[in-house]
């Protein structure tokens, strides 16, 4: 997993806990680099899960909720860092539909070794709804939910989002049914 | 929209960081530096490889371009060599042929038995056929060298077409075929004048008509001509020649327009021909802004359509040129003193025989220097001047004479060029060089008499 995700997790954590508390958490987990992450490096995803669990414990927040919050955080980082991907996108559906065939294509050009999840999309209800299916080796369904919520908030048009976990045989899979709010 | 609460720091950041945090940040920074260093190295190497590849490509492109250029030059020079060879050979054959045809004409003027006349006709016909083949080859080499010249002169379209029909009608009837002629469009009213090259167009139309006659054994040859206005202000002339002859199988129609090829090899054995006529005809039409198309099926006759574009022209008030009888009258007016500069013995003889019926004072010399000295000593009413001669060529001799005349304020003597180099730009070169007229070799008697009469009549009417 890209180091950027670890660096951003720490940045988010530091908005709700002291450096001291975060350092304590890092010191108590067995991490390959002793918690020295750089945004241009690559690190095991399992360390991210360990950190999320530990930060959730410290803040007394369920891991799923923390993942969702972290999804929101990351989405706002994408908005700041990569405005070009948002150009010409009229709404959240168009943005979400572009992830697989536009955003990921560019990511792979810059990081040929990146291991990316797949996001397939399908419109329903005559275009008023979007079904998005997340599939990955990493159990980050709720992180995805946060990203989708962040996207919907960014475009400022309320929508209803339902998530259904369909993981099986160790492969993480989730379906998101997104419909414009009535 | 309200930002989530975790966007705002809830704790005051301390002034100093702990040693462990410092160590971790340092380690992260070092790792980042190593990664960036490795990435930079990768980029540098990739860039080097790209530069090398680009240089290699440039080199390959340059080499390939040079190869293509060499191949093109080779092909062009081979083609040029072929055209020069054809042109030279044609020229070299035309000169002795000039002798054969000229002598045949001279012989025809003498007293012959009917058997001798028959033999002479055969000699003339064979010679003329050979001449037309050579002219075709010469035309083709001019076309291929891009040197075929079109000389557009204001001409009456109907008069031109009438002349062509009059020439071919007897040949059609001789074969027992019907010949129908129809003028439509603007031509139906007559009186259409346009600028085109009548010599080249007669070559096209003559080729199509003689093909139609040649390949039709029964039935008819139908000739339709129409002229229409075009949006660009020009006129389009369409000449449609239909026959009820053997036709051309569809699979062979492409071959019609390939040099030295006929629709079928057996055609050459049965009907003769070089397979050049249509190629040249089509090239001429294309140079005149048109084309030739062919519609046919085996056994079902053929329809050729030749089209050209012409600029409209006005009917000139008087037409220049005299008829043969009038021309001969001019030649017989008095005993004109005519100097002939010609180095070739055969050509000297041809000219002498062609002119022997007229009471002229002929003085024949073999080069330009001799003609200048003869003119200086004894003067002349007319000079017939070959262009390519030893010692002094015809153009230099003409310039010398013109310079002398200017100095001595003499009336200029008419000088008619006689040359096988008869392309439009060559002829205009002779006229610019001070010559007054031109006759092409092989010399045709009527043309020679016309040119001489024209030059002499201008002398006769010129103020002295």
UniProtKB/TrEMBL annotation, chain A:
This is Guanylate cyclase. Residues 2-162 form the Heme NO-binding domain. SUPFAM superfamilies: Ligand-binding domain in the NO signalling and Golgi transport. InterPro entries: H-NOX_domain_sf, Heme_NO-bd, NO_sig/Golgi_transp_ligand-bd. Pfam families: HNOB. GO terms for molecular function: heme binding.
UniProtKB/TrEMBL annotation, chain B:
The keyword Cell cycle does not apply. Residues 88-312 form the Histidine kinase domain. Residues 337-456 form the Response regulatory domain. Residues 16-31 have a biased composition (Basic and acidic residues). Its EC number is 2.7.13.3. The modification 4-aspartylphosphate is found at residue 386. GO terms for cellular component: membrane. It holds the Pfam family HisKA. This is histidine kinase. It is found in: Membrane. GO terms for molecular function: ATP binding; phosphorelay sensor kinase activity. Keywords: ATP-binding, Kinase, Membrane, Nucleotide-binding, Phosphoprotein, Transferase, Transmembrane, Transmembrane helix, Two-component regulatory system. It comes from Parasedimentitalea huanghaiensis.
């Amino acid at each position: 997993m890209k180091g950027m995700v670890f660096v951003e997790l720490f940045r988010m954590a530091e908005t709700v806990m002291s450096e001291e508390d975060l350092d304590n958490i890092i010191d108590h987990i067995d991490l390959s680099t002793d918690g020295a992450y750089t945004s241009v490096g690559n690190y095991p995803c399992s360390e991210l899960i360990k950190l999320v669990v530990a930060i959730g414990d410290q803040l007394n927040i369920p891991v799923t909720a923390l993942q969702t919050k972290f999804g929101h955080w990351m989405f706002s980082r994408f908005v700041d860092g990569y405005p070009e991907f948002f150009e010409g996108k009229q709404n959240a559906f168009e943005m979400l539909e572009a992830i697989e065939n536009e955003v990921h294509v560019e990511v792979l050009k810059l990081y040929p070794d990146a291991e990316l999840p797949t996001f397939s999309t399908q419109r329903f209800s005559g275009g008023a709804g979007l079904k998005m299916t997340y599939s990955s080796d990493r159990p980050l369904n709720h992180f995805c939910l946060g990203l989708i919520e962040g996207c919907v908030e960014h475009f400022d048009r309320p929508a209803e989002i339902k998530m259904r976990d369909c993981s099986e045989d160790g492969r993480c899979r989730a379906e998101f049914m997104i419909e414009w709010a009535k | 929209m309200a930002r989530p609460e975790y966007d705002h720091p809830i704790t005051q950041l301390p002034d100093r960081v702990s040693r462990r945090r410092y160590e971790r940040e340092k380690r992260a920074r070092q790792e980042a530096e190593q990664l960036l260093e490795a990435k930079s190295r990768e980029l540098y190497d990739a860039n080097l490889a790209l530069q090398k590849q680009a240089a290699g490509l440039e080199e390959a492109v340059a080499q390939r371009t040079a190869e293509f250029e060499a191949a093109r030059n080779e092909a062009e020079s081979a083609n040029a060599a072929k055209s020069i060879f054809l042109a030279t050979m044609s020229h070299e054959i035309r000169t002795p042929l000039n002798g054969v045809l000229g002598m045949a004409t001279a012989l025809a003027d003498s007293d012959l038995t009917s058997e001798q006349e028959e033999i002479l006709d055969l000699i003339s016909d064979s010679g003329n056929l050979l001449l037309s083949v050579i002219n075709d080859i010469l035309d083709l080499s001019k076309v291929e060298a891009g040197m075929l010249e079109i000389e557009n002169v204001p001409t009456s379209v109907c008069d031109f077409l009438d002349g062509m029909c009059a020439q071919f009608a007897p040949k059609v009837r001789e074969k027992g075929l019907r010949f129908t002629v129809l003028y439509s469009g603007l031509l139906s009213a007559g009186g259409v004048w346009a600028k085109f090259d009548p010599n080249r167009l007669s070559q096209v139309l003559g080729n199509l008509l003689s093909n139609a006659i040649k390949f039709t054994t029964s039935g008819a040859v139908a000739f339709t001509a129409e002229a229409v206005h075009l949006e660009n202000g020009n006129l389009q002339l369409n000449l449609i020649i239909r026959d009820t002859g053997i036709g051309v199988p569809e699979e062979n129609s492409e071959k019609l327009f390939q040099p030295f090829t006929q629709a079928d090899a057996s055609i050459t054995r049965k009907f003769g021909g070089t397979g050049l006529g249509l190629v040249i005809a089509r090239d001429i039409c294309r140079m005149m802004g048109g084309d030739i198309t062919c519609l046919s099926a085996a056994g079902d006759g053929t329809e050729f359509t030749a089209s050209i574009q012409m600029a409209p022209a006005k009917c000139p008030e008087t037409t220049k040129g005299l008829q043969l009888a009038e021309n001969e009258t001019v030649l017989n007016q008095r005993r004109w003193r005519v100097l002939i500069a010609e180095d070739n013995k055969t050509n000297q003889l041809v000219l002498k025989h062609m002119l022997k019926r007229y009471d002229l004072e002929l003085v024949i010399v073999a080069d330009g220097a001799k003609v200048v000295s003869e003119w200086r000593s004894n003067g002349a009413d007319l000079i017939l001047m070959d262009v390519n001669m030893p010692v002094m060529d015809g153009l230099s001799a003409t310039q010398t004479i013109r310079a002398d005349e200017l100095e001595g304020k003499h009336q200029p003597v008419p000088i008619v060029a006689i040359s096988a180099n008869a392309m439009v730009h060559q002829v205009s070169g002779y006229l610019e060089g001070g010559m007054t007229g031109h006759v092409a070799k092989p010399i045709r008697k009527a043309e020679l008499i016309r040119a001489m009469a024209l030059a002499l009549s201008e002398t006769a009417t010129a103020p002295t």
